[in-house]
Amino acid sequence: MKILLSKTLYLCAFLWYNFGISQNNTYWQQQADYKMIIDMNVETFQYKGNQHLTYTNNSPDTLTRVYYHLYLNAFQPGSNMDVRLQQIKDPDKRMVNNIGTNDNPIYESRISQLSPNEIGYLNVTSLTQNGVPLIYNIVDTVLEVDLATPIQPGEQTTFDMVFNAQLPVQIRRNGRNNREGVAISMAQWYPKIAEYDFEGWHADAYIAREFHGVWGNFDVKISIDKDYIIGGTGYLQNPEDIGHGYGSKTNNTGNDKLTWHFKAPMVHDFTWAADPNYIHDKLQVKNGPLLHFFYKNNPETKDNWKALQPVAAELMFYFSDAIGAYPYKQYSIIQGGDGGMEYGMCTLITGGRSLRGLIGVTSHEMAHSWFQFLLATNESKHEWMDEGFTSYISTSAMNDVMKLNRKNPHLSSYNRYIALANSGDEQPLTTHADRYNINSAYSTSAYSKGAVFLAQLGYIIGKDNLTKTIKKYFTDFAFKHPTPNAIIRTAEKVSGLELDWYLTDFGQTTNTIDYSIKTVNGLNEMTEITLERKQLMPMPIDLTVNYLDGSSDNFYIPLEMMRGEKPVNGRAIALADWPWVNPYYTFSIDVKKDFIASIVIDPSEHMADTNKSDNTISFDQSENKKQ
Ligand SMILES: [Zn+2]
To answer: DSSP label at 595?
Structure first.
């Protein structure tokens, strides 16, 4: 018995030790440094590639397998992406044809209709590890590789791959000849090693979204028809060979092709687009990067692309100031793709938009340089930290840069989230981005509820604390893979408040917030106000009492489990804590009920109350007003 006990104690101590190491003491991340040589055929949209990958295993684990993403294989009849398109109730309209009527739509997957010379593919023709040929298996969009030699913790290995590929006719982020006539959109185009982190391998199939990549350095040489202009990730190393607005061309080799040489330090993706009719403009942001703009020479849209440029510089300044300095020397806004998508040091956006729309999409995609690119959350698992935080900061930027002066610029995010919460279609934010029952529930959760998560965090800890939290989050987690715990712990450290309940309730369940004013009773010279928590999720309460003479008092009811209060700095009267278990809360104010015009819970509308109809009570005091 004694021996058994001591063994158990030893085991517990051992587990605790390991837990302590992995959770608190040592953060690690893998490193993948790519060298690629690409030869593009602009007639067939096919290309050949050689990839030399230096992979460093910084994990404490020995790896016996690795996985690569072969994203382009999604664009084939029968792929996971194709099947999902045919199964989901509300497929992405960019990827289906309606073969029914407007009233009774029947959707046909466009991928299912692609012929062999129209599909996307990424074929691996050889793969070696440190020169030794490897056994591998292509399963849909994932390459499964058995290693010749296991990679020990701290060890480096090299993989050499030869591949050939074809860009699909269907445009989804990448593809050929998009609807605005951009010839080549090269996103998710190369064999990309999957991420291995504290949760293990993330060899997700490409179904609809999203991405998680390994940090590293890229060295990419692309040979393409000499009339084509390339914009993308990375710094051009040979502008004198290229011309095309990069520099004056010194040597004309007389070849049909030019080789563009790019280097990108510490990124986790590499994207580019190419077209023979791009206009290429540049604008230097003061104390910031050089902005590049690549857009079609189209008389209908090119004025907007000119007008966008100074605003893009203001947006870059706003984000650098609000989050943290943009660390690269270059950022490119490139016409291409099928809407707007964020990549390393660049974005691909469609350009046939109003100026306001063009600025809006640029604001959103540029903001992704921070939320998801530099703060590289696994966006398949934590899509709300990617799209939601981006929506929050880009909407804030638009409010400032476009001088919209909205009191709560995030109100439409709140309204969309509340409609979803009341619809019965909501799934928790912990849902994998591909595993929402319907696409619209994904969108509202990721973009709107994710934006509300931050805006409402400002309500809970105070706006100044939120500002500090965002900056500290960047300082502590840029160039890493932050998790939901990272943002909430940062907010706790900044505010000194307990906030894990907020991540749990709002980030991991579909619990909702609903407070109401239950009763207001006059007691001689006093008024007694009783509030009710009608749904499970608790919140601290801001409340305003408006008086007949036009004056008002603000009150703040702290939530007991936060173990503290947000700074109210004389703007509100702090009342006693509300322990969440109690559905009711009563307090008295030193004012006669006859003098009260109205009482309002959360007048700033920063609390995501799913039923606001009972948040305000107004009194008809016309008789009292006359006296
Ligand atoms: Zn986005």
So the answer is: G
